[in-house]
Amino acid sequence: MLLRRFGIPFDCMSPATDETRLGNESPLELVGRLASDKAGSVSRENPRAIVIGSDQIAIFENQVIGKPGNQRVAMSQLLAFSGRKVEFLTSVSVQCLASGFNEQTTVPTCVSFRHLQAGEIKRYLEIEKPFDCAGAFKVESLGITLFDSIKSEDPTALIGLPLIRTSALLRRAGLQLP
Predict the structure, then answer these.
(1) Phi (first) and psi of residue 100, to 5 degrees
(2) 16 occurs within a structural domain
(3) Is 55 a catalytic residue?
(4) Angle ∠(86,137,65) on CA atoms, nearest 5
(5) Which residues span the domain enclosing 53?
(6) How far apart are the first and last CA of the chain?
(7) Is residue 160 part of a domain?
(8) Domain total of the chain
(9) Which of 30, 13, 41, 52 has its CA nearest to residue 167?
(10) Helices 71-81 and 118-128 sit at what angle, rounded to 10 degrees?
(11) Which helix (H) or strand (E) segment is 38 a member of?
(12) For the segment 12-43, what is each residue's pLDDT rounded down to a tens digit?
């Protein structure tokens, strides 16, 4: 959805990437490595292509918060976030093996959740089912109603791909945008 804004042809591929956190890896190192590993995995199969890999993590109370996976965990996460701030790190990596291009960047976003009631969280989860999303919400749809504010240098970072930084990387990789 986001890449269509650029008006360039592209294919989507699922990378073979182990998302397990390594040892003492910081959240910033983790999200950067995952974006780079995803791009690298696809780039090795398509060495002439300019490949974009991205990843996002949520950090709450100095802990990396995973995708909830089910309604019970999502409910618990959103109750904990109520009236609090959660930081999201969204990394993007652009690679092309043939040209040797390989750059990665990370965009932070601070989300301030409004005070949430259990009933409205339950209704939200039943409607949206955001169980595969970091933070248990989809900002691009009804999840936006859960916040007081969002602070980021790139409004698309929280959706999962920071288009401002991605377009800069793609231009450096040789694409003409616009």
Answers:
(1) 80, 10
(2) no
(3) yes
(4) 45
(5) 24-172
(6) 17
(7) yes
(8) 1
(9) 52
(10) 130
(11) helix 27-45
(12) 999 988 888 998 999 999 999 999 999 999 99
Per residue in 93-122, pLDDT (tens digit) is 999 999 999 999 999 999 999 999 999 999
Asked, for residue 104, whether it belongs to a domain, the answer is: yes
Cα–chain center distance at 7: 21
Note the pTM of the prediction, 2 decimals.
0.92
Whether 110 maps to a domain, the answer reads: yes
Catalytic residue (choose from 55, 132, 148, 154): 55
Query: Contact 137/127 with Cβ under 8 angstroms?
Result: no
The Cα 6–Cα 8 span in angstroms is 6
* Strands lying side by side in the sheet with 85-96: 63-65, 51-60, 85-96, 101-113, 147-152
Strand positions, DSSP E, the chain: 51-60, 63-65, 85-96, 101-113, 147-152
CATH code at 151? 3.90.950.10
